Automatic annotation (TrEMBL):
InterPro entries: AlkB-like, AlkB-like_sf, ALKBH6. Belongs to the alkB family. Residues 22-36 have a biased composition (Acidic residues). Residues 110-259 form the Alpha-ketoglutarate-dependent dioxygenase AlkB-like domain. It comes from Euplotes crassus. GO terms for molecular function: dioxygenase activity; metal ion binding. This is Alpha-ketoglutarate-dependent dioxygenase AlkB-like domain-containing protein. The keyword GTP-binding does not apply. One of its GO terms (cellular component) is nucleus. Residues 1-36 are annotated as: Disordered. Keywords: Dioxygenase, Iron, Metal-binding, Oxidoreductase.
Amino acid sequence: MSISILEIKKRQSGKNQSENSMGEEPEPQKVDDEEEKYEFDMVDQELDDLDKYLVPGTETVYYIPNYVTQNDHDIILKALKEKPGWKELPRRIVKKFGGDVTSEGLANKEELPDYLQPLAQRIYDDFIISSMPNHMLVNGYSPTDGIMPHTDGPAYHPEVACLNLGANSLLSFWKNQDDVRESKYLARVYCEPRSLVIFTDKYYSDYLHGIEYVHSDKMSTTPEDRESYIDNWKSLDTPIGEGVIEKDRQDVRYSITVRHVFEKSLE
Ligand SMILES: O=C(O)CCC(=O)C(=O)O
């Protein structure tokens, strides 16, 4: 059974009122006719046990295949592609929702759009991010695009979830910049469309993550092939073949980085 955005907002607004510990007035929920057009499946799904999805060899990286249904994936991807607001960076395109992330916290706060709210709600209901997600950064990568190794900084709640859409991609983790130079990976997580990657603790605050600027990704299921080993290979829908294979990136891959940004100064 699918559920309309109107129903989600009614539930959400009830929840926000009871959970507001700061004594602030909840923001009025804007409802109009156009909101009813997104018929999501995701409210009916439930995550059983996050530990089941731990990427082997890591302490706090999780890979959940097929986190959203094909219907929900397609609704979100279509809306992202069709609506304006994309900004071109040298090696990717980006779009942000929720406001501006500053060193003081979230500024120019905005509501998430109707086609992203159910995702925020579900991630919160599944206890993946312990404060209601209020910010999303969408990246679009053409096959040779990427994002340099980085950490996400202190303005966010120290948990991040990335939904993968459109095409496959490889997210890598390194301990530090020396290891980046030497291609010494802590983990290489292959991300199929509809999957969710979550990382917290040291993988969030200390270690670097990024997507390399290459047109194909090396893949292997043998741990001794450390430079090509895929740590989550057992969870993939499409099995990896024998030996070291090289897989071309086929299409634009989109990711939605879902976070809770602190709304007050950190000082
Ligand atoms: O696209 C991804 O999977 C990673 C995005 C990312 O690192 C970020 O938004 O900070």
